[in-house]
Amino acid sequence: MCGIVGFFTPDGLADGRQAHDLVVRMRDRLVHRGPDDGGSWTDPAGIAFGFRRLSIIDLSPAGHQPMPSADGRYIVMMNGEVYNFADIRAEVEAVRGPLAWRGHSDTEVMAEAIACWGVEEAIRRANGMFAFAVWDREEQVLTLARDRIGKKPLYYGWAGDAFVFGSELKALWPFPQFDFGISPEALNEFLQLGYVPGERTIFASTFKLPGGALLRLDRQAVRRRQMPRPRPYWDLRQVALAGLDAQASGQTATEEELDAVLRDAVARRMVADVPVGAFLSGGIDSSLVTAVMAAGSASQVRSFSIGFAVKEWNEAEHAQSVASHLGTQHEELYVTPADLIGVVKDLPGILDEPFADDSMIPTTLLCRMARRSVTVALSGDGGDELFAGYARYAAIDRWLSHRAKLPGFGRSLASTLVNSLAGPVGRVSGTRMERRFLLLGSLLDHGDPDRVHEMLVSQSLDPGALLAGGGDASRPLTDGTFNLGRSSAIDRMTFIDTASYLVDDILAKVDRASMSTSLEVRCPLLDYRVIELSWRFPTDAKCRDGVGKLPLRSLLYRHVPQALVDRPKMGFGAPVEVWLQNELRDWAEALMSPEALGRHGLLNVAACRRLWEGFTQHGRGWNRVIWNILMFQAWHEAMQSVEAARSPLVAA
Fold this sequence. Notes:
Layout: E1 2-8, H1 16-27, E2 37-43, E3 47-53, E4 67-68, E5 74-82, H2 85-96, H3 106-117, H4 119-125, E6 128-136, E7 141-146, E8 155-159, E9 162-166, H5 184-193, E10 206-208, E11 213-218, H6 219-223, E12 231-232, H7 236-248, H8 255-269, E13 276-279, H9 284-296, E14 302-307, H10 316-326, E15 329-334, H11 337-351, H12 360-371, E16 376-378, H13 383-386, H14 391-404, H15 408-429, H16 431-445, H17 449-457, H18 489-515, E17 520-522, H19 528-534, H20 539-542, H21 550-556, H22 562-565, H23 576-580, H24 585-591, H25 594-598, H26 605-616, H27 625-639
Parallel strand pairs: 13-14, 13-16, 14-15, 16-17
Antiparallel strand pairs: 1-3, 1-9, 2-3, 4-5, 5-6, 6-7, 7-11, 8-9, 8-10, 11-12
Helix pairs in contact: 2-3, 3-4, 8-9, 8-19, 9-10, 9-21, 11-12, 11-27, 12-18, 14-17, 14-18, 15-16, 16-17
């Protein structure tokens, strides 16, 4: 687990020393991702690579990067882990015969695999979480690649005439021509969802490489500033459709298949030359991963959980019960006001762009606690999206079923009535009730599960109203990018969440929180074989009678008594509405003052103030978009002090 950064200039490096010094400055903004070693490499042809290393496999200098292939043709950087590197090593030797390996790192194996088969064929063989940058010295081509689901981040874009890329946005900022102009579309979508979905970032000039994709760039493309489209080598939509076809032909998945794949996925993720532990919330997913670890480990597994003083948010007691049953060496941390205030103030520096998932707070604290004892932790991320675990899936499916029983004229009449009441109800009871009326009206009107789901997961149904210049109603989840097409309502919703919320919220959160403290987090449920297998389970085999994740539950009951883990899902969030009226009140008041809201000219000050005052002064209830605004404000304020930001942050 590491950090990579680099740039590609069209006319070569006129001053090699200057290029080296620049890439080192960029590289060392990622020291938290790789405190164990730093490397750099430049080529007069116009390429500069920078690398920070967190040593996990092969702790010796033989794992140093950037790493050349043995024949010298390829220079390789990799952030992440390839779990089947031993298998690939054997394949390489089967083709080329025994090699004089320098060490036993997965990066060296991949460098030789690339030399053997080329970048794309080598990447296709890799089972892992990774972001690659590969320079082909013979063809003068740069290739970027990201793992299938998008576990590891990779940003890229133009900075003047140069192409820049890196594991985090902050690594790109020292480049002299980096463009800090804010994307209005990204800000609109952030205010709606709490994260920036898809390939966009908050900066108009910079993008995210999609999961399962490669980007190939030669000198001519850079000289013309012609950005090629990322090309998929693995496509989640095609995986989902292939799974639905398999179901239709009778090739449905079985629990025994899932059990075998999951055992192997966990075992591969326990391989490390450093201590390994597990995140344990006491829920289905983390308990299953921890149970499989404990069953396959020769030593006692270490587990970690977070607790809250607010009872309805606290899962620590459940985690302790599961840990006791599995016999793990368990450690828990209850969040104090001092912990809270410290983390909230750290968030803008950790995140690089606005991000409003409040579970970032406990996730960061959990990672900091775990890092005191281990360097790698396994988590249960992915279970809810792949196996229909969120309560909203069953709820929307149930609502659609009820809607189908109403006559058309009745639906139309009821929709008109409910929509007409939404505004008056909102003015009296707050935006939460207004939102519920609009959601019901939409459901009655068209019954499109994609649109109803988008409304349900949005923090604001009209984010443009919060922008100084206004804005069109944002529909980022239903514009076709994340649309599966033919399938059940639950399949379509799980696909949208996997392609958007899982990748751009949950995985981004876990990566930034863990890497901020130099901890590697591995997710067995996101092994691509598990993802592919999940789509061969029919909907009613995943979710039935309002209960989701049925295959995972069944496997977990083999290890843990059902009564110990069967309870309503709590989620891994934080009681921010409580904190904002207590420990975080002064912090929030400062960011939501008219002066602070108006400082950059991007937000509608009056609209934002109405939301804040409605919550704090008029008792109109909590609105989650307030946290989105606060996170944008905190991020923007922190960006003003960024050393490389020489121009004001304004709309691009």
